[in-house]
Design goal:
53% helix; 7% strand; globular
Length: 119
């Protein structure tokens, strides 16, 4: 049986997809989210991270939770080069290092609506 943290993580990921796409979320999309959650859980150490404990690789849905964007928005940002740095794991799978997400967010911090980057 899955642990409660797994269930909460999976539910959050599915909720994010449903919130973005309404009721039009495919079974395949939900299955992919659950596969990612299961993979993350299976390779997680005691802290919930994969083997690279200081800088874990996160699947797009988890990266989206960290940066506040949906996986499909992250995909669009990968295509136009405006998103966080990512790792191509295979022809169809990508992941994000937590440090890359933090750096991407930090580069977008602003002190006013005038658009000047925070220093």
């Amino acid at each position: 049986m899955a642990n409660p943290a797994f269930i909460d993580t999976a539910a959050s990921a599915v909720f994010a997809q449903v919130s973005e796409h309404g009721n039009a979320v495919s079974v395949g999309a939900i299955a992919e989210i659950l596969r990612d959650v299961l993979t993350t859980e299976a390779t997680a150490g005691p802290t919930g991270h994969n083997d690279d404990r200081d800088d874990p690789l996160l699947p797009p849905w988890q990266a989206g939770v960290v940066v506040g964007l949906s996986p499909s928005t992250l995909a669009k940002r990968r295509m136009d080069g405006t998103g966080p740095v990512y790792v191509r794991l295979s022809a169809t799978r990508v992941a994000y290092r937590r440090s890359a997400l933090d750096a991407w967010l930090a580069a977008r911090e602003r002190t006013s609506t005038g658009g000047e980057a925070r220093s």
